[in-house]
Amino acid sequence: MDDIIDKQNITSYYQPIVKKNGDNLKIIGHEILARGIAEDGSTISPFHMLEAARMRNRLFSLDRAFRLKAVENASAVQEKMVFINFIPTAIYAPEHCLSTTIELIDKLGINPGNVVFEVVESDEVQELGHLKNILNHYRASGFQYALDDVGTGVNHIEKTDYLQPDIVKLAREYVDGITEDTIKQEAAHALLNTAARTGARALSEGVERKEDLDMLAEMGYELFQGYYFAKPQSKPVRALEEAGGERCLWRA
Question: CA-CA distances (angstroms) from residue 43 to 4, 50, 105, 206?
C-alpha cells in the first residue's frame, strides 16, 4: 500500500455516462475509476486498496492520489464531463486538502464546469455539515458534484434535499430488474421528484438491460451508466451504436 501511494502505482479506467434522447444515445462524459498496479503488473481493485489504507491510516493519502491521477488522465475524455470520486471522511479541511487537486485542474486547463466530484462512502459521514462544507468548496471553485447510490441506507431523499447536488445517481439495486418490480419503480419515481425539486439531474447507474433502460427513460431519466453500454476500460469509449440489439464500441 505504501508503494502504491508513494510511487503513484495507480492507473485509470473509464466508464461512459450516456444521455438518451428519444432513440439516440450519446456519450456525454466518463466516470474515471482508480485501479492499483501490483508488483507483478496485475490490477488491484479500489475496495482492497481502501481497506488496506484504512488499516495503515493512509486513507487521505490514497484518496488524494486517486483524485490527482484521475485529473491527470482526464484529458483522454476530450472536453466531455469527467466524474471523479472522493471520500469525504478523508478530508478534514477542504481549503487545504483539496488545494492540490484544484491547482492541478487549473494547471492542465480543464474546464471546471466539466468536472463532477462524486461523493462515495457518504454512509460514513456522521456530520452532514462537514460534507456540505466540502461540497460548497467545490461548487465555489466552479465544479459540480454528485451523490452516488441515492435511495439506499442513509443516502436517502432527505439528504439529497439538504446537500443540493447537481446530479443524483439512482442506486443500481433500484435499476436492475425495475421493469418487474413496483418497489424499485416507486424508488425511481421518488428520486426523480426530488431531483426536480432540487434542480438536480437524475442518473441511473448499473443499467444492464435494454428494457430497464427504456422504462427509466419513459419515467424521465436522461442520464445512464452501466454494463449495457460498456464496462470500465483502460481507454475511454468514443461512440456508441446499437445494431441488432448488440452494442458496438469504438475506443481511443
Answer: 11, 14, 26, 22
Dihedral (CA of 64, 129, 145, 206) sign:
positive
Q: What's the longest Cα–Cα distance across the chain?
A: 52
Scan for cell 456522521, then name that residue: 126
What does the pLDDT read at residue 252? 47
Say which residue the cell 486538502 belongs to: 97
Place of cell 461540497: 135
Grid cell locating 203: 442518473
Residues 200-237 pLDDT 10s: 999 999 999 999 999 999 999 999 999 999 999 999 98
pLDDT digits (tens, 9 = 90+) for 35-83: 999 989 999 998 899 889 989 999 889 999 999 999 999 989 978 999 9
pLDDT tens figures, 133-153: 889 989 999 999 998 877 654
Which residue has cell 468548496? 137
Q: Three-class SS string for the chain?
A: CHHHHHCCCEEEEEEEEEEEECCEEEEEEEEEEEEEECCCCCEECHHHHHHHHHHCCCHHHHHHHHHHHHHHCHHHHCCCEEEEEECHHHCCCHHHHCHHHHHHHHHCCCCHHHEEEEECCHHHCCCHHHHHHHHHHHHHCCCEEEEEEECECCECHHHHHHHCCCEEEECHHHCCCHHHCHHHHHHHHHHHHHHHHHCCEEEEECCCCHHHHHHHHHHCCCEEECCCCCCCECCCEEEEEEECCEEEEEEC
